[in-house]
Write a structure and sequence with these properties.
The chain has helices spanning about 20-30, 50-60, 75-85, 105-115, 165-170, 185-190, 220-235, 240-255, 260-290, 300-310, 315-325; strands spanning about 10-15, 35-45, 65-70, 90-95, 100, 120-130, 150-155, 160-165, 195-210. The chain is an alpha/beta fold.
């Protein structure tokens, strides 16, 4: 195995205004010890004054590179662009409103991946910057999982995680058509389908500020993306059409219950369009022989692992229906 200090790491950060927070995130990455890191920043259309403040700071950070897009390419697209700017075997993503909890975080992450070759990704512990407690807004693991205990997982949280570049690139990176919401799960399932596994590793921690001003809330876009992207990804992974129809109905019921039915209906219509376009593109790839190694339909071993890690998938139908009548968080 490699010595940790010899390993190169690409730290990717998406910037969109909030220059003070973004600078703090970059500084935290630059201060990491025990690895050779490059910091790759993609700015997604920050206002001129905010961008200039960031550029002035980066003049003094020799191992940082900034790419200015002038537009918002989404989370998935932005991470793909940032990852392509580097070549290190390990990619670490850090939210622009987060910092590493200590200066050994990258070294610990690299060491964990180095000693667990079966893992393609690890999720970090994400604490609230102000309270030091688990950040509930960045916790999406099954009931019974604890933030202070490691466990096998089917996903990581976007705010802080590490990826093996070889697997990330082999499965085609993020699907940038997702833009926002669900892009991590979509990527994780494809990586799991290659036989690799994912783990939550609380020994690597970040502190997240949860800046509210740049968040997409349920009534103004989040639920639309949730519906659209979940149905689209499920279709890619080979979910049977009756189950897809039931999922679509559940989204509509929940949208109605939360008084955001238009978002649910828009998401449903656009998901149908995305699924149709995906099917057409796959048909063209099949005819041209360009499919390569990309297989989206999840195999039996992958489904078995997912069901083991996500017990809610085994819930009775009545319990799943009841969950649709819960209120979405504000």
């Amino acid at each position: 195995m490699n010595r940790v200090s010899d390993v190169q790491v690409d730290v990717i950060i998406l910037s969109w205004n909030r220059p003070d927070d973004t600078i703090a995130a970059i500084a935290s990455a630059a201060e990491q010890e025990g690895v050779r890191q490059r910091i790759l920043i993609v700015d997604q259309g920050s206002e001129a004054d905010n961008l200039r403040q960031l550029e002035i700071y980066l003049d003094g950070v020799p191992n940082a590179t900034l790419k200015k897009l002038g537009r918002n390419s989404g989370v998935a697209g932005g991470r793909n662009i940032a990852s392509a700017m580097g070549s290190a075997p390990i990619i670490v993503a850090l939210d622009s409103d987060a910092i590493f909890a200590d200066r050994q975080a990258l070294a610990v992450a690299v060491g964990h991946l180095d000693s667990h070759p079966e893992l393609c990704a690890i999720g970090f512990r994400i604490d609230n910057y102000y309270t030091g407690e688990n950040d509930a807004t960045a916790w999406d693991y099954p009931p019974g999982c604890r933030p202070d205990t490691g466990f096998p997982a089917t996903r990581f949280m976007g705010g802080g995680h590490a990826l093996r570049r070889s697997v990330f690139e082999a499965v085609g990176a993020y699907d940038d058509r997702l833009f926002f919401c669900g892009e991590e799960v979509d990527l994780c399932y494809r990586m799991l389908n290659t036989g690799y596994r994912i783990a939550y590793v609380p020994e690597v921690a970040i502190r997240h500020k949860s800046s509210p001003e740049q968040r997409v809330v349920w009534g103004r876009g989040r639920y639309y993306y949730t519906v659209r992207n979940n149905l689209y990804s499920a279709y890619k992974f080979g979910t049977p059409l009756p189950r897809l129809a039931l999922g679509a109905f559940a989204f509509v019921v929940r949208g109605l219950h939360n008084r955001i039915l238009p978002s649910a209906l828009r998401g449903l219509v656009d998901a149908l369009g995305m699924c149709r376009a995906y099917r057409q593109s796959r048909n063209l790839e099949e005819r041209s022989g360009d499919l390569g190694n990309l297989v989206y339909a999840l195999n039996r071993e992958t489904w078995h692992y997912i069901r083991q890690c996500e017990p809610t998938r085994q819930e009775p139908l009545l319990a799943k229906v009841r969950r649709q009548f819960t209120r979405l968080p504000h």
